[in-house]
Amino acid sequence: MARTIKKYANRRLYDTHASRHITLDGIRQLIVQGEDLVVIDDTSGDVITRSILLQVIAEQEQGGRPILSATMLRHIIRFYGNPMQEFMAQYLESSIEAFLNQQTGMQDQFRDMMARSPIAAMQSMAARNLGAWADMQKAFMDAMLAGTTKKS
Which one of 38, 47, 94, 116 is least enclosed by Cβ atoms within 10 Å? Predict the structure, then answer.
């Protein structure tokens, strides 16, 4: 079950599970720890999780080393209102899922590598990674071509 965070009219966030106020950085820490959460506007009852998560991302992007370059953000903005918007959202989500799966796979392979030949493990990992990216690119191109033929 998702942890509930309430946002009050005074813009303060309240963690109902821990019975205390929480900051955006506190929300970030919960997510990093693997917590699933939902943010609800206390006044309207609306679910505002996405807008709060976007604030967390914006805060993270301001300091340190950002993940989202200006070029990437421009590309994403251009997809809003585009017939391919929904596909782009699915593609980005699938790409991140694939990346996380590959990261887990790499960790498993490194553990295995210590127990057996390092070269065999690296070749296997490279082959799987290339296959996964090739499959994603094919799906992206197929969808792009399907979108192009719909316009004609």
Answer: 116
> pTM higher than 0.85, yes or no?
no
Please say whether the beta carbons of 17 and 4 come within 8 A: yes
Please check whether residue 26 is in contact with residue 59, taking contact to mean a CB–CB distance below 8 angstroms: no
Average pLDDT, the chain: 87
Nearest Cα to Cα of residue 103 among 140, 139, 124, 129: 129
Distance (Å, whole) CA 87 – CA 18: 38
Per-residue tokens: 37: 């959460």
User: Phi/psi class of residue 81: alpha, beta or left (left: φ > 0; alpha: ψ in -120 to 50)?
Assistant: left
Question: Per-residue pLDDT tens for 39-59?
Answer: 999 999 999 999 999 999 999
Q: How many residues does the chain have?
A: 152
